[in-house]
Amino acid sequence: MTLKPHIVLLPFQKKSSGVPISRIKWHSLLSRTYVTHVPPSNAPQVARTRNIGIIAHIDAGKTTTTERMLYYSGYTRRIGDVDDGSTVTDFLPAERARGITIQSAAITFEWPQKPSEPESADLVESVESGTEPKSALSHHINLIDTPGHADFTFEVRRSLRILDGAVCILDGVAGVEAQTEQVWKQAGEWSIPRIVYVNKLDRDGAAFGRTVKEVASRLAGWPAVCQIPWWEGGEGRFTGVADVVNLRGLLYPKGGDGKVIRVFTLQDLEKANPKLASELKRARIALVELLSEHDDTMVDTFLESNEDHLAVPAMAILSSLRRCLLAENNRVIPLFAGASFRNIGVQPLLDATVNLLPEPRERPDSEISIGATKIGLQDLLIGKLVLPNADSQASKRGRKHSATPSVPPAHALEGCALAFKVVNDVRKGVLVYIRIYSGSIHRGALLYNTNLNVSEKATTLLRMYASDSLPVQSIEAGQIGVIAGLKHARTGDTLIACYGSKVVPPEPLDRLQLRPIEVPPPVFFASIEPNSLREEKDMQEKLALLLREDPSLHVTQDEDTGQILLSGMGELHLEIARDRLVNDLKAKATMGQIEIGYRETILHPSEAMTKIYDRETAGQKGKAGCTATMEPYNTTESQSIEPPPSPQDLEAWSHERDGNLVTVLTPKIHQDNTSHSSKDALLSPNLTLPDLRTAYLNGALAALSRGPGKSYQVRSVHVTLTLHPPTHLFGTESTISALAHFATIAALKDSASKGGTPLMEPVMDVTISVDEASLGPVVHDISSSRGGHAIRTARRRGDQTSH
Ligand SMILES: Nc1nc2c(ncn2[C@@H]2O[C@H](COP(=O)(O)OP(=O)(O)OP(=O)(O)O)[C@@H](O)[C@H]2O)c(=O)[nH]1
C-alpha cells in the first residue's frame, strides 16, 4: 500500500547542490476540489472531536506550542508571544504580567483547517477504511491549556478529568522534570492516553537521546520514537524532524513561520544527509520492533512485509500506535520532536493528536455515584443499576420504605454535564465551562445541580475560542462548551437536564454525580479585610465568586475576631487569588500577610463525654444524645488502624477526613427498625442509618475545624461517637449533628486539659533533582539555611542527576 500524505508535494526543485527537494505547504491539499460532497452537518461529529490537554512542567513551552497550534489552524493570524504577553490563552492580566498560565483556558479550533469545499466522500471513505490517516479530514479540537506550577495542581487535576487525551511537553534541555512526573502520574490515574512532545530542541544543551531515556526511566514506559531531530550538518542548528512513521524528512526553512516545509523522501535524504537517513532507518527498525512486542497485529504486518522493517506501511504503524495507546494498562509512549518557538514540529504534532489520541466514545465509561453506589454512566443509561431502597432518599422525604428495589428512570435523562471550570469574564459575566457526558444540553434547558440541589436555566450556550465566543443552540455529548449567566454552578458540580424540563429530576437522578475531585486541605492562609465597612458586602460577593471559580480556595471567619481568612495551597496560589480579587474583580480589599496553616493535635485520650438533648420543640417531643471519646491518631499508620472493638450488638462505621478518623458506633438495626436489645423502633421515621451517620460525622468535623488552643484546625485525632438506645432516640438530623458537635468539643477539651494541644506545622516531602556537581551546596543550603533535612540521596538510573 502506498500512503498518500494529506499534503501536496510540489514539483521537485533542483538546488544548486543538485539534490532534489520537494516543497510543501502543510495541508495544502485543502485547496483541492472534489466531485462528490458529504452533506454538511451543523453539529460537529463526535468521531471528529478530540478533547485534548497539554500537560507539562512549568515553562516547558505549553503556551508557546498552543499559540502555534492556533496559528496553523487558522484561528489566529499572527503568532502570540509569551515573552511580550500577547498570547491568546494566557488572557488573564495576571498571567500576561507573570508570563505563566494560571487558569486552564479551553479553546476550540479545527485541525486540519476546514476546507472551503466540502470534503469528498472518497476521502471520508478512505479515512474510515483506514487507508488514509484521520488527519486527512478536518477535526474539532477542544484544547485545554493547563498550568504547570505546583501550586495549581488542583487546576490541572480538574482539567485532566474531562480530557480524552493529552500531549505532554518536555523541555529538550531539562528533560523529564519533577512536575512532569507529577502530572504524568495524575493523568495516569484517569487513564488518559498521552503522547510526548520534546520541545526546545533549538536550545544549547538540548539532548534528544537523553530525554528519550528519561521518558523510559522516569515515566515508566516504552518510548515509541516517531520523530528524530534533524540537526544542520549532523550537530549544528536544529532545522527540522525526520518522520519515522512515514520515512521522510521535514525541513523548516530558517526564520520562517513554519507554514512552508521542505519534504525529503528517504531516497532524497540518503543523498542530502546520509547520516540522518541511516538514523531514520535505525529508528524505524526500533519502532516496528517495539510495536511488535505490544501488538500482535503488527507482528502479522511485519511478517506480511517480508520482515522488512522499512516496508511496513505507515498506516499500519499509525494504527498499531493507536491500538497500543488506547489499550488498558498501556505502557507505549509515542514521542515527537520540535521547537515551537522556532515554529518547528507543531503541525506533525497536531496530526498526531488527531491520528493517535481517542475520540470521546473511545474512552472508558465515566464513573458516577448515586449516594454510596458507584457505577458507569452508560451502565446506568442501559438500566444496569438497581438501587436498594435503604440507599434511597425516600425516607428522608417522608415516603414509606418499600421492599422493592428501584430502577433509576434513566430514559428521563436528557443531558448530563460536568462544570469543570467557572470564570468571571469582564464582558460576559460568569462563564461555566462544561463537558457533556451524555445526551445534550439545549439553550433554555432547566439544569438541576445535583451538588447544590438547585435548578437554573441555561439561557446562553457558547462555544469558546479562548476569550472570544460563539453562541450555539446546543452542546452534544463528548463536547466542551460554556453556559453563560448561571448563578450557582461551581467548579466540579454535576448538571442534569431532564425531558419535560422538570425542576427536580426523578429519583435517584437527583443524586447523580460525576466522579468528584478530592480537594486537598489548604496549607497557607491570609486575612482579607474590606477597605471600609461599606465595601464588605461587595468583597464577600467577590470572594464567593472566587470560590466558585476555584474550590481549592477556602474562606473562613474567625469566631473571636470576626476576621475573614482566605486559605489556599501555596503562597503563589494566594497571591494570584489576591490579584484576581483586587485587580480583576475590583474588590476594595486588602490581604494581610500570608501565614502557615498550623494544625492542633492532642496527646492523651479523653474520657467518654455524653451530651443529651431532651426538650419539646414546636409541640414535638425530642430526645437525643451522643457520647464522644477521643484519642491521638497517626495518619501514617492509618492502614493498620482497625475500628475499635465494638460490643456484639454494635456496628462500627468509620470515615477518614483531613488526617482525622471519625468512627460512629450504632446498634445493629434490623429490617423492622428494631435492635437486638430493644423491640422499640430505633430510628425516628424521618431518619435512615446513613443520615444518622452523616449527621454525626458533620458534627464531629465541625468541632474539629477549630482547636481549643489557637483555633487552628485539629488533626491526627480519632473521634468515636456512640449512640446508645434507648437514651439517644428521636432527634432530627440537625439536633443529632449539634449533639455530636458539642460532645466532640467536650472530648477535645478534656484531652487538652490533660496535655495541651501542641501545634503541628506542614512538612513536605520534596524530591529535588540536581546535577551531581551541585549536590553538596544544595544539601548544605537545605539543612543550614532552610531548616530542612535531606532524607536520602539517590542517583537516577541512566541519568546524571541525584535526588
Ligand atoms: N528556545 C526556545 N524557547 C522556547 C521554546 N518554547 C518555549 N520557549 C520559551 O520558554 C519560555 C516558557 O514558555 P511558555 O510557553 O510560557 O511555557 P509554559 O509551559 O506555558 O509555562 P507555564 O504556563 O508557566 O507553565 C518562554 O520564554 C518561551 O519563549 C522553544 O521551542 N525554544
TrEMBL record:
<dbReference type="InterPro" id="IPR035647">
    <property type="entry name" value="EFG_III/V"/>
</dbReference>
<dbReference type="InterPro" id="IPR020568">
    <property type="entry name" value="Ribosomal_Su5_D2-typ_SF"/>
</dbReference>
<dbReference type="GO" id="GO:0005525">
    <property type="term" value="F:GTP binding"/>
</dbReference>
<dbReference type="InterPro" id="IPR009000">
    <property type="entry name" value="Transl_B-barrel_sf"/>
</dbReference>
<feature type="binding site">
    <location>
        <begin position="199"/>
        <end position="202"/>
    </location>
    <ligand>
        <name>GTP</name>
    </ligand>
</feature>
<dbReference type="InterPro" id="IPR030851">
    <property type="entry name" value="EFG2"/>
</dbReference>
<comment type="function">
    <text>Catalyzes the GTP-dependent ribosomal translocation step during translation elongation. During this step, the ribosome changes from the pre-translocational (PRE) to the post-translocational (POST) state as the newly formed A-site-bound peptidyl-tRNA and P-site-bound deacylated tRNA move to the P and E sites, respectively. Catalyzes the coordinated movement of the two tRNA molecules, the mRNA and conformational changes in the ribosome.</text>
</comment>
<dbReference type="Pfam" id="PF00009">
    <property type="entry name" value="GTP_EFTU"/>
</dbReference>
<dbReference type="InterPro" id="IPR000795">
    <property type="entry name" value="T_Tr_GTP-bd_dom"/>
</dbReference>
<dbReference type="InterPro" id="IPR041095">
    <property type="entry name" value="EFG_II"/>
</dbReference>
<keyword id="KW-0547">Nucleotide-binding</keyword>
<dbReference type="InterPro" id="IPR004161">
    <property type="entry name" value="EFTu-like_2"/>
</dbReference>
<feature type="binding site">
    <location>
        <begin position="145"/>
        <end position="149"/>
    </location>
    <ligand>
        <name>GTP</name>
    </ligand>
</feature>
<dbReference type="GO" id="GO:0032790">
    <property type="term" value="P:ribosome disassembly"/>
</dbReference>
<comment type="function">
    <text>Mitochondrial GTPase that mediates the disassembly of ribosomes from messenger RNA at the termination of mitochondrial protein biosynthesis. Not involved in the GTP-dependent ribosomal translocation step during translation elongation.</text>
</comment>
<keyword id="KW-0496">Mitochondrion</keyword>
<dbReference type="GO" id="GO:0005759">
    <property type="term" value="C:mitochondrial matrix"/>
</dbReference>
<protein>
    <recommendedName>
        <fullName>Ribosome-releasing factor 2, mitochondrial</fullName>
    </recommendedName>
</protein>
<keyword id="KW-0648">Protein biosynthesis</keyword>
<dbReference type="Pfam" id="PF14492">
    <property type="entry name" value="EFG_III"/>
</dbReference>
<feature type="region of interest" description="Disordered">
    <location>
        <begin position="784"/>
        <end position="803"/>
    </location>
</feature>
<dbReference type="InterPro" id="IPR014721">
    <property type="entry name" value="Ribsml_uS5_D2-typ_fold_subgr"/>
</dbReference>
<dbReference type="Pfam" id="PF03144">
    <property type="entry name" value="GTP_EFTU_D2"/>
</dbReference>
<dbReference type="InterPro" id="IPR009022">
    <property type="entry name" value="EFG_III"/>
</dbReference>
<feature type="domain" description="Tr-type G">
    <location>
        <begin position="47"/>
        <end position="361"/>
    </location>
</feature>
<dbReference type="GO" id="GO:0051881">
    <property type="term" value="P:regulation of mitochondrial membrane potential"/>
</dbReference>
<feature type="binding site">
    <location>
        <begin position="56"/>
        <end position="63"/>
    </location>
    <ligand>
        <name>GTP</name>
    </ligand>
</feature>
<dbReference type="InterPro" id="IPR005225">
    <property type="entry name" value="Small_GTP-bd"/>
</dbReference>
<comment type="similarity">
    <text>Belongs to the TRAFAC class translation factor GTPase superfamily. Classic translation factor GTPase family. EF-G/EF-2 subfamily.</text>
</comment>
<dbReference type="InterPro" id="IPR027417">
    <property type="entry name" value="P-loop_NTPase"/>
</dbReference>
<dbReference type="InterPro" id="IPR031157">
    <property type="entry name" value="G_TR_CS"/>
</dbReference>
<dbReference type="GO" id="GO:0003924">
    <property type="term" value="F:GTPase activity"/>
</dbReference>
<dbReference type="GO" id="GO:0032543">
    <property type="term" value="P:mitochondrial translation"/>
</dbReference>
<keyword id="KW-0342">GTP-binding</keyword>
